[in-house]
Every structure is written in structure tokens, then in C-alpha cells.
Design a protein that fits this description.
Length: 334
């Protein structure tokens, strides 16, 4: 079954198949948790005329022994991924190493009578040496071979890799079909404003389900409500004790709010948050961008010995006055 927000991307892939224009290398991109792996499975199931065989592959789980690549239930399909145990250090690698990609290419460079498929996920986790070792196979693949790269952030891929692939992008989704899918997959749907849920997760349905699975979303909603009230009623800054101990989570929440505000203001749209609509209507977009930059700096500094509580307080002072600032102040690092 095609996920509603995959329809545009899958239609493009179907047209390639029908017109016999499917390239030897595909690059499927989209933000984290948008379902790139699911779209890849849908494509492969279509090519093999078998939806079940690929869905039996359970390769997202970590193995307790070292491997370079993994085999699919379909005999002529292999996977290459980060997170495999390094045989020398016994640590899990956060990147895809050159020895993995070399093995991946060696397997795909063998002649096959039937379609052979190689999947790298996520390709933007390849180190430079690994990416370079892939180039020759991308440029001169064997016949009957399809290489599929999945990537969260295409900017982290070398231009030489991108130029050798046909790109298919999965966009964030806010449409009614996606909202209906979420409603079918959550309990007590009547308790939630689904368009609002999509806005807070930037149009990523799987994130909606993930955040509703625990109590994290309830905390997030509470912090969001507090932050919106603060920008409308600046004197409430003395009542923000709920933020103590959750400074980084609150900064992330404010970051999401401002990103959504910038998006709505740029498109001249209104969103589902009445208070946010009111705030962005009174705020210069340049100040939103500056505050967004300062918040990202604060999040980065939280990994150091900085006083994160004082830094959050300084950010919140600016946020509480954002609707009537004449000039943007410099935020102290605490």
C-alpha cells in the first residue's frame, strides 16, 4: 500500500518503469522518518512483482557480530548501512566505511542473469573514502543492476555521487489524505488536532506517531503553549519554572515554533496555532531568522560547560519581546 505522502514520488518511479527509463542509480531523499526505506521497499516489490519478499528483510536491527554488507531474502539484493560492528574495534560505526562499500561494489560487479539490487542507507553517512570508492560502480554498473541510495540530507553527499544518480524526493505532507492516514493509526484521534500535529513535526507523519507513543508529546505541547503565551504576555517570564531541567528540549520546541512561523510568514499562510499566527503577524521575519540562529547556537553550546539555564533565560527574554522589537539585541552566552 502506497503511503499518501509518497504518491508523487512513487508516480515518478512508476513512470520511469513504464517508459523503460529506470536509471541504474536512484537517489531517494527526504527528511528523517519521512519513509525513504518504505518507498524503496515499495519500488523493489513492484520491480520483482512480489511485495512480501522484501518486507521480510529485517536489516534495521543491529547485529551482535561484524558484517560488511547484508543479504536480502531476494537472493540478488544486498544492503550496506552504518551502525555495523567494526571487526577491529568492536564498536558500532556511525558512518559507512570504505571496506563496506568495496564489498558492496564487488558483489554488484558480478554478472547476474536476473535483476540485482544494492541499497545503501543512509548514503549521506558514507565517509569521503567510502563515497569515492562508490563512484566507479555508479558510473559503469553491470547490466541488470540497480543501485538505490537513501539520504536524509543530500548536502552531505559529494556532488560527484549526486550527479551519477536520478533523484526522487519525498516532501513533507500536510494534506487531507495524510491527516486521514494519521487518524487511522492513532488511538483517541478525537483528542488531537491532527493538522496541528503535522505542523509541529514539520509534515513528517511517522514523527507524529512516534511522539504520541510516549508522554514526550504531552510535555512538548505544554512547553509550546507556555512559549506562545510568553510571546503574547511577556510578564509571564517569571512563571517559566516548568522549563528548569528541560532547557535543551524547550530550546528545540522554540526552534520548531520559529521554523513553522518562518514557513507560514514566507507563504503568507495561517497555521493551526492561533497564537503563532498572531505573533508572526507582528514580527519582522528578519528577527525570526536571527532568533533561530541564536537558538541553534544555544543548542550547540549546551554540549559545553555553558550555563544552559542562563542561556535559555536570555533567549526567552528576546522571544518575549519579539513582537515589538525595534532592533534585534545581542544575546549573552551566559
Amino acid at each position: 500500500m502506497i503511503l499518501p505522502w509518497h504518491k508523487t514520488a512513487f508516480t515518478k518511479l512508476q513512470q520511469m518503469i513504464e517508459q523503460n527509463h529506470l536509471p541504474h542509480a536512484l537517489l531517494i531523499t527526504g527528511v528523517e522518518k519521512i519513509g525513504k526505506f518504505d518507498l524503496m521497499q515499495q519500488l523493489v516489490g513492484t520491480l520483482l512483482n512480489d511485495d512480501e519478499i522484501i518486507r521480510k528483510d529485517n536489516i534495521r536491527e543491529d547485529l551482535d557480530y561484524p558484517v560488511l554488507i547484508r543479504r536480502s531474502n531476494y537472493p540478488n539484493m544486498i544492503y550496506c548501512r552504518a551502525g555495523e560492528l567494526n571487526p577491529t574495534t568492536k564498536n558500532r560505526s556511525k558512518e559507512i566505511r570504505i571496506d563496506q562499500v568495496r564489498e558492496f561494489c564487488d558483489v554488484l560487479n558480478k554478472t547476474a542473469d536476473t535483476l540485482q539490487i544494492g541499497v545503501i542507507y543512509y548514503a549521506d553517512q558514507m565517509n569521503n573514502a567510502a563515497a569515492n570508492s562508490l563512484l566507479k560502480t555508479l558510473e559503469e554498473p553491470r547490466e541488470n543492476t540497480l543501485i538505490i541510495l537513501l539520504a536524509h540530507n543530500v548536502k552531505n553527499l559529494p556532488a560527484t555521487v549526486i550527479s551519477r544518480c536520478q533523484s526522487v524526493h519525498i516532501s513533507p505532507a500536510y494534506d487531507e489524505a495524510t491527516q486521514a492516514w494519521i487518524a487511522q493509526n492513532i488511538a483517541h484521534k478525537e483528542d488531537f488536532d491532527i493538522p496541528h500535529l503535522l505542523e509541529t513535526t514539520h509534515g513528517v507523519p511517522f514523527k507524529v506517531l512516534e511522539e504520541l507513543a510516549g508522554d514526550g508529546f504531552m510535555h512538548y505541547q505544554h512547553w509550546q503553549d507556555q512559549l506562545l503565551k510568553l510571546a503574547i504576555h511577556p510578564m509571564m517570564i517569571s512563571q517559566m519554572e516548568d522549563f528548569e531541567g528541560n532547557e535543551v528540549a524547550v530550546l528545540n520546541c522554540l526552534q520548531h515554533l520559529i521554523i513553522e512561523g518562518i514557513r507560514l510568514k514566507s507563504l503568507k499562510h495561517e497555521g493551526g496555532l492561533v497564537e503563532l499566527n498572531q505573533i508572526i503577524s507582528l514580527t519582522k521575519i528578519a528577527f525570526l531568522f536571527k532568533l533561530l540562529h541564536d537558538i541553534q547556537n544555544a543548542i550547540n553550546l549546551s554540549k559545553t560547560s555553558v550555563n544552559i539555564k542562563l542561556l535559555l533565560d536570555n533567549v526567552l527574554i528576546v522571544w518575549s519581546h519579539i513582537t515589538h522589537l525595534k532592533t534585534y539585541p545581542q544575546i549573552s552566552r551566559g
